[in-house]
Automatic annotation (TrEMBL):
InterPro entries: Asp_de-COase-like_dom_sf, BFD-like_2Fe2S-bd_dom, BFD-like_2Fe2S-bd_dom_sf, CT_Nitrate-R-NapA-like, MoPterin_dinucl-bd_dom, Mopterin_OxRdtase, Mopterin_OxRdtase_4Fe-4S_dom, Prok_molybdopt-oxidoreductase. Belongs to the prokaryotic molybdopterin-containing oxidoreductase family. NasA/NapA/NarB subfamily. This is Molybdopterin-dependent oxidoreductase. It comes from Undibacterium arcticum. The keyword Cytoplasm does not apply.
Amino acid sequence: MRTHPQPGLRPEGEGENGRTGGAQDRFEAKATCCYCGVGCGIIVQSDGAKVTGVRGDPDHPANFGRLCTKGSTLHLSAEAGLQQQARALFPALRSARNAPLERASWDDTLDLIAKKFADTIRLHGPDSVGFYVSGQLLTEDYYVFNKLAKGLIGTNNIDTNSRLCMSSAVAGYKQTLGADAPPACYEDIDHAELIFIVGSNTAYAHPILYRRIEDARKNNPNLKVVVVDPRRTDTAREADLFLAILPGSDVALFNGMLHICLWEDLIDSAYIEAHTEGFAELKQTVREYTPKYVADICGISEADLIQAARWFGQAKSALSLYCQGLNQSSSGTAKNAALINLHLATHQIGKPGAGPFSLTGQPNAMGGREVGGMANLLSAHRDLANPEHRAEVAALWGVDQVPSTSGKTAVELFDAVRAGDIKILWIACTNPAQSMPDQRLVREALKKAELVIVQEAYQTTATVAYADVLLPATSWSEKEGTVTNSERRITRIQAALPKPGATRHDWEIVCDFARKLEARLGKEHSLFPYRSSEAIWNEHRESTRGRDLDITGLSFAILEQQGPQQWPFPTGASSGKQRLYEDGIFPTASGRARFVNTVYRPVAEPVDARYPFHLNTGRLRDQWHGMSRTGTVAQLFAHAPEPAVVLSSTDMTRRLLKNGDLVHVTSRRGSQILPALSGDDMRAGQAFVAMHWGEEYVSGRGHDGHGSYGVNALTLPVFDPSSKQPELKHAAVKILKAELPWRFLVFGWVDASQVLALQSALRPYLQKFAYASCTLFGRDKVGVLLRAADDYPAAAELTAEIEARFGIVGAGVLRYDDSKRGNARHMRVQDGKLTAVALAGDISAEVWLRQYLEAELPVAELGRMLLMPSSKAPQGFKARGRIICTCLNVADSEISDALGAMQGAPDTLLAGLQGKLKCGTSCGSCVPELRKIIQLRSVAPKLAA
């Protein structure tokens, strides 16, 4: 008897009017990808018990069936073996801080925390508790969390990890346009004459939008692309003009461009006069931003600055796309406002192909903003400081009042916990022990809290280690509700699977807890009567009536029948609004947009003689945030296998560094040892570390013996005064070679049902070495790799324990040991093939031994060579090199070999590679890098000449 499908699921092949055929035991559900803010539609295939596949939804207007490497492998993160190891499936309590989490019932767990909340609120007041939630929650989850904090408890101490990525964009939109509403849409990419990308490696962070940019350039040869970024990323490399500005100089750049537009009469004076205010004051300020002054601040040429300004001012339609490079800054709001000033002055807004378009980083950061899920906001874009807005929300919720004092924002929240002002901290669907800046502060706060509640789908995150209570939530394939993407488009998500174990939906957990708390607080009527996500959404919908994001004309039924819709969609409308402000009327008191008098200020932490490097953080192509999900998929490590700090070749040479050499990367807050890599995308004096690497993947003893915590041991908690968004993108650091001559390396295949369990078991070992990392590799099989270094050989007992975890133990292991030199080579061979290898001291044989293992090549022909002390590779061996195309497992050596037999223009060579190797023909995420390889190949002969 086959499993009955969940609500919203349809057997594969069944149409709207009945079953038309297809497999009887497979079901499909429509949802969105749970990674970035593009909001790609996906079709989730299941057998009723597990996810069996994912493909792009061809009918979804965000992606039209396309998916990137992360989205197309989403189903691999839901494999049964990984889920059993990674998922939090039952409530759990910790009897004491250092005791293990032990399974408990929902009733006992919720009763305990309801009592603790009630007692703490009576004793210390409602502001003694706080909530830290996530842009990966659904809109309905967000709404009830907001209502719980502000409506029932009476505290505004609720903030979100969207504070770390989108709050400067929110503040910038509100200061200039009057509302937190991106005015453009994805279709504007097709109509733009100029695309101005600032602080965004779109090719990596929003790959499906970048595919759309590639299509637009093919369809319109006159389209110009300008990229502004400190690094020559794959996005920047393909631009018509690249402005490699110094970190933090964005305001100067935009003011300088406006200065040139004023000087060359490229502004729209009639539009400014009719639809804006405040221009006279800004005009006085930008007079000082001459091309030479700005070029010197930004570190670019005057000619490039003038070219960018002319293209922007002369274009019939200029579209700006921007992300964390503007937002994650102590002057993030000013950066956003300065760019919007440029759009307003040139009338590049409110028309097809134009507008300032902030790209959200998380799948529902926009939905969280819609329901007021931040410490200073209320539902439907209402302001907490406005008494009328507070009264409207109080009336809707049926409470006497909503507290008027802004709550603690993200960094402030953890500061208050550390100070003891906040006693209870509830964390939902986010991992602050990896993602927050200044990890020492965050971890001290988590240890100081009287009660830490973690509501999470994955029990493997670093934050769970600090949880007194673990509440198991459903994950992407089990959830049901709505999300809103970057272009204000609301998508209805269907559950593909039933809830596993004892998990509950996030909104259910909040409502179940709230009703228990209401009983303890003596409330007669519940504020949380909901029995479905639709009931919550309907209340949220009513809160938007008459507001800028009015969705009173929408319903779950419309979203299911007509597909995703953009807001506003008021009562009586037949469709949502593609782009805003086409009539020149803005949601401000005067109906006019406001110019903000933006003034350039240097970065919060400038470089100096002690800390001479600008550290920049950003995304990898195939990983997502703290990797709690992508980090379970081995093939997603292929493109960037291990943590690293990327430096310019000039800085590598000056410091006598080779690729792979370990360095101390040290800021004023902490230090992390990392391998150094040379990158042609870097300019001298700058360094780059991917934001994803937390202690789950890279660690070590640390200078003080308390451990290091990945990249966010280095970042600073200084934040923008308006948006309260911290400056995660930039820090001043020093980089010194780490004198760690002894190396240790273990890698091997692991049974899929034991992979994450092994990673968790290895985590405590990482801090026993000066440096250690632990990552995955493989494709059809899954392998685990642990790499460590120290200034002296580790104890034999320690390395033996680790090797035993990989099954390198017993009589069947080949062994070579040279205790005098500290060298060792231990290998497990099964059926004539390597299955696990441990190297100590001299690990230079890693390259060929690992390739023999990964390719599952027979090793009998190697004979004694396997155990010879020499690291020389077998005759005829050729390393594959780095994987470029993750989808089809194509390496750079194969690409180079194929190019060697080809001639022609770059587009011809790309087509040839796609035809021969198929790389770039699946998701397309590797196409920019393929173009880079082709470009470097064509440049190399000229350099040699």
